[in-house]
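Lab notes, practical 5.
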Amino acid sequence: MTDKGQMVVVTGGTRGVGAGIARRFLAAGARVVICARRPPAAPVEVAGVEAEFRALDVRDAAAATDFFAEVAADHGGIDVLVNNAGGTPFGLLAETSAARQTKIVELNLLSPLYASLAAYEVMRRQDTGGAIVMIGSVSGTRPSPGSGAYGAAKAGLENLARTMAVEWAPHVRVNTVVLGLTRTESSHLHYGDEDGVAAVGRTVPLGRLADPADVGDACVFLASDAARYVSGAALHLHGGGERPAFLDAASVNHG
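Output from the prediction step:
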């Protein structure tokens, strides 16, 4: 499987990280279908080549099955699925309803499961197989105050990907990009103005937040022949992670 000419589906690909992922696949010569409940505010494109938008509520398992079958029929197959759709508002567990937490788990864990199952039905019949990339989060690898259900769902997603990688081998490879702090058009909602974004970026060892293009490059790699022996892996895209709080609290200078 090569990058150029791949048929790629990116869920939640109309904005933010998803749009960045779609653009990097377009730049690599892939054909890209993006899906979300609503169309993008502006075309997702690179050098005049535009991603095709199709409406889909990824939380609807039956709709996902129909969606992937239709895309495959129209485009001659599906080579890559990037499960990007997800997210959560801030809310402490004891201050939010069980119904809201259920919706967060549905979006971030069950929806990627539905999409992956539907894509697998297409990929398993293809001579070239396919590749699935989950967009995980560091919230699934550490305590996540204010996003507890989201963190739990992302932890489950990474485990799900490892299981799929075993069950669906050798025809379909499944990997996870474990994403850290990332700059999007919504960053101000979490970090404030430009000074706030810059201050948060300085807490990352590499000195900045990730850009959606960084995420896209990781996905293009995992979907490519260069990663042909990579499956069941978690690629941590977090700029070096988070500096341990005890280092700042200690009186000794640790550099």
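Observations recorded by the TA: The mean pLDDT is 93. The helical segments are 16-27, 61-75, 98-123, 148-167, 187-191, 194-201, 212-222, 245-249.
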